[in-house]
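tool_log.txt
---
The assistant was asked to compare two proteins side by side. It first ran the structure predictor on the initial sequence, then on the second. Raw inputs and outputs are pasted verbatim so the downstream comparison step can read them without reformatting.
(1)
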Amino acid sequence: MKLDQDFLAVVRGPIRRVWNGINADIGDCSNKEAIELCLDADRIVQMTNSQVAEDAIVSAIKEHGLNKVYNFLSKNIPLA
């Protein structure tokens, strides 16, 4: 899974939907922390029912590593 605009097109909506569902319960945090919270505990599937986005994220993490994926997403999906 490339970390590119196609990847972002798949995951951006579900990540934003999760953030909209949890951000009221979260204090101040960095954008990277917000991304981590959205991806934690299978929230993408549980809160958005998007197995496609979950699969893309898991594939990207396996290929590029967790930190690189978090950094890429936090630079390209502003949440916090």
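(2)
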Amino acid sequence: MGPKALELSAIRDALIRQEDTIIFALIERAQYAQNGVVYDPARPERLLPRGQGKNDSFLDFMLLETERLHARVRRYTSPDEYAFFPQRIPAPELPTLSFEPILHPCVANLNERIKALYIQKLIPAMCRSGDDAQHGSSVVADVAALQAISKRVHYGFFVAESKFLSQKEEYTRLIRAGDDDGIMALLTNAAVEERVLRRVRKKASTFGREIDLGDDAMSEGEISMRLDPEVIVGLYRDYVIPLTKVAEVQYLRQRVDAAVIAFHGPARGLVHRVVERHFAPSHQLQDNAAPGLLRCAEPAEALQAVMNNKAHHAVVILEQGDSGVQNAAINLLRDTPLQVIGEIKGSATFRLLSPVPLQSVTRLRARRETLRLCQSWLRRVLPHVVDLDEMPDADVRTADDAPPWGTTLGVAGHERTAYLADSDTQIHPELSVIVDVADELKERVRCVILSHLKDTAPAAGNEKTLALFGLSDGAGSLARALDVFSRRRINMTHLQSHADLQEEGRYILFCELQGHANSQTIADALEEVRGCVNFVRVLGSF
């Protein structure tokens, strides 16, 4: 997918092909009854494997499982594919691809609206009422139709980018003024929309007819249709075209100035707050739009958001707590084509909250990681506590970072409970601070910022470089590599060994060097080190 993707002729060809897919998918679905039970979260349990999809309809279950399979082969890394359940799909198992940045990063996703309109409006319009027990076949057809409609609606991003580039000043003026009506009016071309509807009507009339050898002798009124073409025309007129324009407006509202930052971790968790604090001043000082934050389930998802141009930067945790650089992060950074362009550090302090005085506390409740960090301090402050209630660390998919008291307040046995909470956590009205945790027991986090940007600027002299080395099997390879930096008087401020998850028995060295990779001294040293090790991967300089 290259720059030609923004040419109007290429966009038109793509939309025409998508019409064919949508029309065939709707004709396939129309052969079955409405089968409303497949859209009901309270459906009979026999429609799902036991224990699966507690709050999902049968359609949700099938759509999610389809997306999970497709995600493993990187379908949703493509800039023209959007999942209905983006927070519930796994990372790709195939090597990830880096797409040319054609589109401006955008976090809009209209799939919830598409699914609701499909179920509530389209199904009753094209399917006979009742239940024909063809539940599996109906849902398989639904999945194909929904994915095709979603792709067509979100292809509006390409349309919007093409139109923006052709009338940059006018669109920029409307975007900065927040004039959605003006943007919509500028996007709308009634003549083009009418041609689309005429083409859809002709295709639906052709694809949907029952073929009979006697067709030539029949009048138009006598030819049997599998689906009334006007239903499909109505879908395009009333839903597909309007939703595509909504997608275009949402894309354009994020087109000027606003950066999108992908990160992983719980909402309102430490990483979330650190990212907000780091990126907020840039837009406040420059009078730019506030950056959008895209919360991801996994670090790989944050990186992929940048690689498929749905975010400008990815923030990935390098160190958290006192356990050093994370092995998973090192193995992830080894394979990404993105460059580290900076780092963010942050910390959080804790306090003990309770409805009773310190000496009356008999139970302690906190996140697992918080308990680990503060265990020595807790033994001194609460030596009499006999019951520890460990709660899991917050799930990234939850709407908010759950406070440690959760739903336990007011429950019998918890009236003498103390809660070890992050100092930024809003205090529940029934609780009060009984003691602040020692300041040295901070939860610390260090993240790296990654981007497509290639640093070709000359070295200023005060930078540092992050790099990875793959140790070879020969004796003394580490000593020879370290000697290179020693002889060239390059200061190595951090060195840590990590298991290579790709090759059993091999190890990767993560190091930080004082100086920029573009400087002659560092560049020559890295070139010499390549002869001592299996590979050298420069992660970036900043």
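---
observation on (2): The first helix runs from residue 8 to 29. Residues 260-348 form a domain with the D-Maltodextrin-Binding Protein; domain 2 fold (CATH 3.40.190).
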